[in-house]
Amino acid sequence: MSRTRNRPLARHALSPNHALAFGIGSGVAGVSILCTLVNPLTAALGIANIGLYAGVYTAMKRLTIANTWVGAVVGAIPPLMGWAAAAGSLDAGAWVLGGIMFAWQFPHFNSLAYTLRADYSKAGYRMMSVTHPRLNARVSLRYALLMFPLCAALPWLGITDWWFLVDSSAINGYLAFCAVKFWQRPEARHSRRLFFSSIAHLPILLILIMAHKLLNDRRKA
To answer: Measuring CA to CA, which residue among 72, 65, 67, 46 is closest to residue 56?
Structure first.
């Protein structure tokens, strides 16, 4: 694929055995550090994510479009790890943050996959953008809309103040608008607009969560 052909393994700057050894070494070291210096729950989530990505998601890409949902779970686990590291448990807020990351990945990845659908097809990957382009756009819209109730759950749980609902709805609204355009007419210009809006959307949303949590904590103090 043109997107990955300059990576060290693809251009043979690194042998498969060296890559495997580095991956195993990094995984063992990382999980060990998390277990000893953070807590076992965070380490367990880390090793589960390594197994899910390397052992399940990667193999599924050539078998079924369900790989996208598995990949989204992989992307949703890091917020759970962060919460577990800070709190030592997985409370409701952790699952909401994980849900936000899970949902965000569909408008982000599906729009990218549509642009790169020819490359995915040549590589033999079973992606929605290749096998079911209309479903690809529909799923993007579905999960873009899911961002609204997920964000609303944060003030309801007392994690942020209620003003967060206003701010988050504004940026979620633009993401949903781009997703609607992509759903109505799945074509390159709409997929690119959705992709780039998703890139801006996530950091802005996370900054808003932190800002409104700080304001909420100060109000409670």
So the answer is: 67
Which conformational region is residue 204 in: left (phi greater than 0), alpha (psi within -120 to 50 degrees), or beta? alpha
For residue 14, how many other CB atoms are within 10 A of its CB? 13
Query: Which position has the token pair 């992509």?
Result: 182
10 Å CB burial of residue 25 (0-12, 13-18, 19+) is exposed
Residues 6+ apart with CB under 8 A from 120: 1, 113, 127, 129, 130
* Contact in structure between 4 and 10 (CB atoms under 8 Å): yes
- pLDDT digit string (tens) for 142-171? 999 999 999 999 999 999 999 999 999 999
pLDDT digits (tens, 9 = 90+) for 100-149: 999 999 999 999 999 988 888 887 888 888 888 899 999 999 999 999 99
